Amino acid sequence: MDAIILQILNGLDKGSAYALIALGLTLIFGTLGVVNFAHGALFMIGSFCAVTVQRILSVSFKTVDPSKTDFLGNPSTYDTPYVVHWFGPEFGAGIIDWSVPLAILFAIPIMIAIGFIMERGLIKHFYKRPHADQILVTFGLAIVLQEVIKYYYGANPIQTGAPEVFRGSFDFGVLLGFDPNVIIYPYWRLVYFAFAAVIISAVFAFLQFTTFGMVVRAGMADRETVGLLGINIDKRFTIMFGLAAAVAGLAGVMYAPINAPNYHMGMDFLVLSFVVVVVGGMGSLPGAVLAGFLLGILESFASMTQVIDLIPGINQIIIYVVAIIVLLTRPRGLMGRKGVMEE
Q1: CA-CA distance, 32 to 38, in Å (whole number)?
Q2: Could you read off the pLDDT of 263-306 as tens digits, one per residue?
Q3: What does 121-178 look like in DSSP terms, one character per residue?
Q4: Using CA atoms, how far apart are residues 258 and 188, in angstroms rounded to an integer?
Q5: Separation of alpha carbons 7 and 335, rounded Å
Q6: pTM to 2 decimals?
Q7: Which cellular component appears as one GO term in the record (predicted)?
């Protein structure tokens, strides 16, 4: 039972990333009808926003300590971060320690701006083009963004630490009545799951309970009729593209301490997230979230030693096997709508 609970936790952690990326993909496809293969790159850029903020906050200057000398008798020097100098040792060190959560404030405007530029500068020219053209151009854009990140940040993963208070592990088993140290789970992974739940809930609440969201949902169902009512639906869809980019970016920011940011991480998640979207149903937001968590949990169980010993390599293909089964039995996915991608 403890192994099962641990794998469920692992699945929820991984499923959170899948669900957030798939949610943004589905928002873009549902509103604009665009298959955006550059969406994984937005997740990657979000991770590097966390790296950038951490580096900015760690910028330092040399301080001379005359009370100490090196082996040559010269006064010793040490690096003092500017934020420590400005805000004091305790508060300044705390700002550096919390650089990843603070990167959210940096990432939101950056990701929205990137989303606007992508949509207005490139994507809008492919609205009426075949999906194959959309895939090719957005995949090419993803490669360009990937190479830009590689050029400026290098090819090696960059370790990005979580706040010190979240670097330990939580004895989850004690809450469920197990012996101590039976189910140990990292604090930050629990934080990431909670963060994903908040973002997903906020997106659904925004679409469900705000006038802007209601117009967007109406436009997703019948764009032409909404346009005839005098509503500038294109402007609202552009805003939704920016919001979808922000969701992907925030997912990347908070995932940085879990998986050290690297230039190809966007591609790693992109393919799996598209499988999640297809399994959940193209254009279905609830389907994308449901499929994200379900496939994350299935992948986690398939990674167990007992399962791999029984079926070698199953952890590498389980998501694709499930996708094949779902599409053979429910071609529209678990919660797909009639007419989407069927023309």
Answers
A1: 15
A2: 988 888 888 888 888 888 877 888 888 988 998 888 888 888 88
A3: HTGGGGTTS-HHHHHHHHHHHHHHHHHHHHHHH-SS----PPPGGGSSEEEHHHHTTP
A4: 8
A5: 25
A6: 0.87
A7: plasma membrane
